[in-house]
Amino acid sequence: MTFAERMKISSIMFFSLLVFGAAVLFWSSRELNSARQNDVLSDDIQTIVFERATLRDEFFLYGLERARVQWFALNRDAEASIRLGNEHLRAPQEREVLEKVQADLRESELVSQRLVELLRGKSGPELDRAHHDELASRLYSQIMLKDSALQQSSAALQELTRQRFNRANFRTIFLTFAFVLLVVAGGRANAFFINSLLRRRLQLLNEGVARIAAGDFSHRMQCRGSDELALFTGVFNSVLDKVQDYTGQLEKSHDLLSGLSSQVPGILFQACLTPDGLFSTPYVSRGGDELNQGAAAAPLQEPAQLFERLPPEKYQTILGTFLYSAETLEPWEHEFLIDVPDGGMRWLRGQARPMRLTDGGTLWHGFISDITESKRAEEALHRSESRYRMQLQELTNIYTHTAVGLFAVDREMRYLRLNEQMACYNCRPMDEHVGRTIDEVHPASFVVALKEMWRPVLERGESLLNLEVQGQADWPSGLRHWLVSFQPLFAETGAVIGLTGSVMDITERKVAEQVLLGARQQLEREVQLRTAKLSLTNKHLIQEIEVRKKVEVELLSQQQKLQEMAFEISMAEERERDRIASELHDQVGQRLILAKIKLDSLASNLPLGECEAEAMGVETLIEQTLQDIRSLTFQIRPPVLATAGLEAALRWLGEELHADFGLEVGFSDDGKDKPLRYEVRSTVFQAVRELLLNVAKHAGTKKCRVRFTRVGDRIVIEVEDDGTGLKPGAGDGTRSRSGGFGLLNVQQKIEHLGGVFSIESRPQGGTRAAIEVPVETEIK
Length: 780
Fold this sequence. Notes:
Elements: H1 3-62, H2 65-88, H3 92-119, H4 125-131, H5 134-213, H6 228-263, E1 267-273, E2 279-284, H7 288-291, H8 312-328, E3 332-339, E4 345-356, E5 362-370, H9 372-401, E6 405-410, E7 415-418, H10 420-425, H11 438-441, H12 444-460, E8 464-470, E9 481-490, E10 496-505, H13 507-529, H14 532-605, H15 612-636, H16 639-643, H17 646-661, E11 664-669, H18 678-698, E12 703-711, E13 714-721, H19 742-752, E14 756-761, E15 767-774
Parallel strand pairs: 11-12
Antiparallel strand pairs: 1-2, 1-5, 3-4, 4-5, 6-7, 6-10, 8-9, 9-10, 12-13, 13-15, 14-15
């Protein structure tokens, strides 16, 4: 008999024992639950009986209608509980007591109804006289006797159910304890039986395995019999034979791997991280000399020898990536640069997969390859992609913002795309074009003309260029003239799949031509009637028109040059401010610091008490001057303006003015993106600084508010105060409250940036200044 058959018989017997015990426990649990329900039911009946007695006395003594209603309601509850008891109580003695309770309740109800009919509607003195009535007293006495008997019966019923519940509870506890003992004893017996079967044979197997683990692969284990262990011994001996064969094959494979790895264009390696944090590379292929810049080609065996010849900062970076891979067990992948002996640089990419060892360490098997050429290709591709994106953006801007209507349709004359100008020509929004045919967009008469015009383009692939088309007079835009061109769209096979078109509105030119034609005709008629003098006058007028056009062109050119010069002046001012700030910090500040150091050295060499006060005063004056230079440098060109943006710089400016002048600046920002070039940010910052200094010095108030918002494509900065307002005559916003010309300078700078500056006094008091500048992306 095999071990499996013996264990099966033992398990079946143990399982049968468990099933029998579980069945007994289940029966006992059901009995306990039934006894608990009966006990609760008997408690309810007894509670109702005692409550009836209380309500009975209230009704008889005080005549309370409420007591009568509740009394009879409890009668119904008692009858319902008794009916429920008839369904659940099964013991003969319990049913006998329950029947007696039911009989006593019925007799009590009959007498109670007679007493209620006798006392119904009586109160006060009548109720007192009814209490002394012989019939009422007799009825009340009978009720008390019946209720007393009912209470005794209910108490007896409660005692019987309570005893049954206690017996069921004790039986369940006893059976549970017995079942647990039975399970424990059966388990111990089963374990002892199995242990006795396996101990002796497993001891022989352990001795054989120990000899094989010690390296004696020629040993073969002996185990007689036909059971599983004997079969296992035979299989194990055959496995040992195969292991010896596989060992020889592994040696051959190792030699083959060494030969292949020496020919692979890269580095095969094995890295290891011990639990105590020691990193090493136990194996590196012969390609490791590429990484080690001509080192010995033999496999490296020393810890960390693969990467240790790299610069320390690169080695630490690579070690950090290995530590992260060991922590997360994510594949290791890292790209790094190395210097080669010829003075160049090479990109290497390392990839390895981690494996957690049994001792808690981590082992990687990986490969390092040269990716210099692919990196160069990626850089070239990135540059090409950047140029392509720039060209695509230029084409998109031209397509979107050109004054010419552009569109494309397929062979079914369905709009594929169009620009805003084309939608404007058709007097419909863009979403009412795309995906719709020309029949759904244009009037029917114009559609017929379009189809006839597009027929040679779609059927024969011809191009129609510079055709003049006149629109229908019943269009919403009225009678219009367009200059159109149509060209076919070809598929890769050469078939025409649609057409593209361009439309230019030449209505004004046509009107001008018609007007000119009429004037010319009128002029010809007048020439025939007038003298040659009028013809000469006409020539003079034409020459004057040409001269005026040339003057207008020159004026526009001069205006453009003036704007460019103004912008360059503003930028030169910003650069000069940067230079002044740099010189204040690097020259004047450094010299004052040197003077302070020499003054301290001089004071330390003087005798105590001599010129001490004067030295302290000079030192304080130099310290104050240094602080003023730092503050002035920060206000001329605050570093926070370049690093954190205009919003943070304005908040810093408010804190500075609060510290210097006690001015409380309330700042609010709508949180929207407000991109500005640095030059524009600097100009706006200086403008707001001028406004806040004007408030601090001349407004007569210590509070102001700055709001920083974006409205469309413009950024608005508002400065408000509750001070004295502007002086009379300063409504143009060019003079400060002190009579200076600081605000005029602010206005000119903002206008040079294409913005708007305004300042006004509010009727309720105070001043409101607003700066608006267009949104611009900073040029890197």
